[in-house]
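User: Here's a chain of 160 residues. Predict its fold as tokens.
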Amino acid sequence: MKSQDEKKLRNQLVSHLKGGQAFTPVDRLIKNITFDCIGIVPDELPYTFYQQFYHIWFTQADIINYCRNPDYQAPDWPGNYWPEQKAPETEQKWQELISAYSDEREEFCKFILDTSNNLFQPFSANEDHNLFREIQLVIEHTSYHTGQLFVIYRLLSRGS
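Assistant: Prediction complete.
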């Protein structure tokens, strides 16, 4: 792949990772919901806004760790990926989670843009996996659960 094409591809992946191409960025949704609402379970749903967002963050962090760490050990599924509590203990903890998500995503973007990180080289842990695949996985996973966040937000906005 020509370096010019590779640069375009990397920039496009980062753009999709941040959202706003085919789905509303998570950041925009988070700005619109109040702390008082993030722990409410809307009628007929099994989870809260907080639990969904935590899951997005945890999965993103796990995949980033997988990409960077040759000695990666998978967390317990599903136990570590979904919090039992419906909301964080404090608004400060909520803000810390939001910051962790944003900071880790930004670090991942820098990792993606670094051309010394081969997009297509198979990982030693699994020959079918590579950085390109994992980036796509984060994008797909985030977009899927962002849709669920939107449903929760809309239900809460109309007073489910």
